[in-house]
Specification:
Blueprint: H1 2-8, H2 11-36, E1 42-43, H3 46-51, E2 67-70, H4 74-87, E3 91-94, E4 111-114, E5 121-125, E6 130-133, H5 139-147, E7 151-152, H6 165-171, H7 178-181, E8 188-195, E9 204-209, H8 221-225, E10 234-241, E11 243-244, E12 251-257, H9 260-272, E13 279-284, H10 285-295, E14 305-311, H11 315-331, E15 336-340, H12 343-361, E16 366-368, E17 371-372, H13 378-392, E18 395-401, E19 406-412, H14 418-437, H15 453-459, H16 462-475
Parallel strand pairs: 2-4, 3-4
Antiparallel strand pairs: 1-2, 5-6, 6-10, 7-11, 8-9, 8-10, 12-14, 12-15, 13-14, 13-18, 16-19, 17-19, 18-19
Helix pairs in contact: 1-2, 2-4, 9-11, 9-13, 10-12, 13-14
C-alpha cells in the first residue's frame, strides 16, 4: 500500500516518502552513534527523552531530540562531540534541569548530553583554598564537602539543593550571598572543556585558566565560557576558588513593609547608608503564603513584603551592623523591624525565600522574570511591576535578591487560560522594557536561553550583537553546541 502510494507522485505520496526517508535517516544516525559510543548509556526511550528534553522554564519551546547520552567521563563526552560533528547532530548539554530560561531545552534532532552522572569532587586543596569538581556535582553537596575541610563555596542560587555546578557555570549563577561575595564567575579559576573550531577537531579536550589566585596570560577565555550557556563547548571539569568557613552563624534582620514599593525604598536606603549585608532578600505576601500553605513552616504573612538581611560580620561589629540595619528599615517605613535571636526562625525565613518559586509553581504555571536594575532604581522597578500587573490584570508575585537589584517577578497564569497566557506574555515583555529603560538588564542570573532572546536584542546595540555572533561563529563554526540559545 505504501509502495503504491509512493508511485503516484501525489502530495500524500510525497509526504509519505519524506516521512520514510526521515525514519531511515534517524535510524542510520542512531546506528552511527551507537557504533561510535560502545558501552555508553544512550537513551532512546520516548518517555525518558521527554524528561531530559527541558528545564524548568515551562513556557520555553522544546524540540524533539534524537537521543540522550548519560555521560560518565570526559573521554566519552569527547567521542560524543566528535561523532555528532561528523553526523551534523547538535549537542545540548544539561545538568539537573533547574534552569528557568529554556537554556537546556532540546532542539530537534539533537543529542542531549546529560552530565549529571559526572558528579565527583575530584580534589579539595585546603592549603591553596581551591577544589576541582565535575559538572554534575550538586551545589549544596559541594558546600558540604568543602565545609568538612573548614572551607566555604559562597555562590548559592535558590536552587542550590538541586542545581549542579556545571549548570551554575553555564548561566553564571548568583544567589543569595552574591551581594557581598560575588557570583559564580568570581570563583571559577579554570575549566576543562570539549570544544571544536580553532582549538582543533570537534571533540578536542583542552584546559582554560589556572590554579593560581592571579593569572592574566592571554585573554580571559575562562570568563568567556562562564555564562555562555553551553554555546561554546561542553564543560567537563571545573577548578574553583574557596573561602575560609565563616567563624560564626550570621545574624538575620527582618523588616515587614506595607507595600512592595516601601520595601524597595528600604533597599535603596540600605545602599545609601553604606551597609553591605551578606544577603538582602525580598519576598511578598503571595510568596510567603504559598510556602506556608505547602511546607507549614509557621510563618505569618502579616505584611505585603518582607526584607531579610543576613549580617555575617563577626563579634560586636556584627551586632552593631545588625542594629543599624533594623534602624534603616524602620526609618524607611517598615511596619516593624527586628534582629532575629531565634536561629530556627531565621532559618525558616530563608527557607521560605528559597522555596518561593516551587511553592508557586505547584499552584499554577509561572512565567519567571530575572531583571536586574541599579540598586537606586529598585523602588521604581517594583512600582513598575505592580503597575504592569494591574494594567494587564495578571497576578504577579515577587521575590528578589533585592540588595543587588535582581528582581524575580513571577507571573502566575491559571492553567488552560489562553487569554491570561497572552496577557502574561505582554506583561513579561513590558517588564523587560522597563528594566532596560532604567539602565538595567533583562537577565541578572538565569541566562537568556530561549525566553529572553527578544529582550537581549532590545538591550544590546547592533554592533555588540554582531561581536557576540562573531565570537560564536569563531569558537563553534558548525553551530553544534546548543544552537539557537543565548544570542
Amino acid at each position: 500500500m505504501v509502495e503504491k502510494t509512493l508511485r503516484t507522485g501525489s502530495y500524500a505520496g510525497r509526504q509519505n516518502r519524506a516521512l520514510l526517508e526521515a525514519v531511515i535517516s534517524t535510524e542510520t544516525t542512531l546506528a552511527e552513534l551507537e557504533r561510535a559510543l560502545p558501552g555508553a548509556k544512550l537513551v532512546v526511550d520516548a518517555d525518558v527523552l521527554a524528561s531530559l528534553s527541558h528545564d524548568d522554564a515551562e513556557w520555553a519551546p522544546v524540540g524533539r531530540p534524537l537521543a540522550a547520552l548519560r555521560a560518565t567521563s570526559t573521554e566519552e563526552v569527547s567521542r560524543a562531540v566528535a561523532i555528532c560533528a561528523e553526523l551534523g547532530v547538535p549537542v545540548v548539554a544539561r545538568g539537573a534541569g533547574t534552569g528557568l530560561s529554556g537554556g537546556a531545552n532540546a532542539v530537534d534532532g539533537c543529542l542531549v548530553l546529560d552530565l549529571s552522572q559526572m558528579n565527583k569532587v575530584l580534589e579539595i586543596d585546603a592549603e591553596n583554598m581551591i577544589c576541582v569538581v565535575q559538572p554534575g556535582v550538586v551545589n549544596n553537596d559541594l558546600k558540604a564537602a568543602v565545609a568538612r575541610e573548614g572551607l566555604w563555596y559562597p555562590p548559592d542560587p535558590a536552587s542550590a539543593p538541586w542545581s549542579t555546578i556545571g549548570g551554575n557555570v553555564s548561566t553564571n549563577a548568583g544567589g543569595l550571598c552574591c551581594l557581598k561575595y560575588g557570583v559564580t564567575r568570581d570563583y571559577v579559576l579554570g575549566l576543562e572543556v570539549v570544544v571544536g573550531g580553532p582549538a582543533g577537531d570537534y571533540g578536542t579536550v583542552t584546559r582554560l585558566g589556572h590554579r593560581t589566585t592571579k593569572g592574566v596570560a592571554g585573554y580571559d577565555l575562562t570568563g568567556l565560557f562562564v555564562g555562555s550557556e553551553g554555546t561554546f563547548g561542553v564543560v567537563t571539569e571545573i577548578t574553583l576558588r574557596l573561602r575560609p568557613a565563616r567563624r560564626e552563624a550570621p545574624r538575620t534582620v527582618v523588616g515587614a513593609f506595607p507595600s512592595l514599593v516601601a520595601a524597595g525604598s528600604a533597599v535603596a536606603a540600605v545602599t545609601s547608608a553604606g551597609l553591605l549585608p551578606a544577603a538582602l532578600e525580598l519576598l511578598d505576601r503571595a510568596c510567603l503564603q504559598a510556602v506556608e500553605d505547602w511546607k507549614h513552616l509557621g510563618l505569618e504573612a502579616d505584611a505585603e513584603a518582607l526584607l531579610l538581611a543576613q549580617i555575617d560580620t563577626p563579634g560586636e561589629s556584627g551586632q552593631i551592623e545588625a542594629a543599624e540595619m533594623a534602624e534603616v528599615f524602620e526609618k524607611a517605613g517598615a511596619l516593624w523591624a527586628a534582629v532575629s535571636t531565634d536561629e530556627q526562625e531565621a532559618e525558616a525565613l530563608f527557607a521560605a525565600r528559597r522555596l518561593a518559586y516551587p511553592a508557586l509553581e505547584r499552584l499554577s504555571p509561572v512565567l519567571t522574570e530575572d531583571v536586574c536594575v541599579p540598586r537606586s532604581k529598585v523602588p521604581a522597578m517594583l512600582a513598575a511591576v505592580v503597575e504592569i500587573g494591574e494594567r494587564h490584570q495578571v497576578a504577579i508575585a515577587t521575590i528578589a535578591h533585592a540588595g543587588d537589584g535582581n528582581l524575580h517577578p513571577l507571573i502566575r497564569v491559571p492553567a488552560g487560560d489562553e487569554d491570561a497566557r497572552v496577557a502574561a506574555q505582554r506583561a513579561f515583555e513590558e517588564i523587560l522594557a522597563a528594566a532596560i529603560g532604567m539602565g538595567g538588564t533583562v537577565s541578572g542570573e538565569h541566562g537568556i536561553g530561549l525566553l529572553k532572546r527578544e529582550g537581549l536584542r532590545k538591550e544590546l546595540p547592533p554592533e555588540v550583537q554582531a561581536m557576540q555572533i562573531a565570537v560564536k561563529q569563531t569558537l563553534d563554526p558548525l553551530n553544534l553546541f546548543n544552537p539557537g540559545k543565548a544570542i
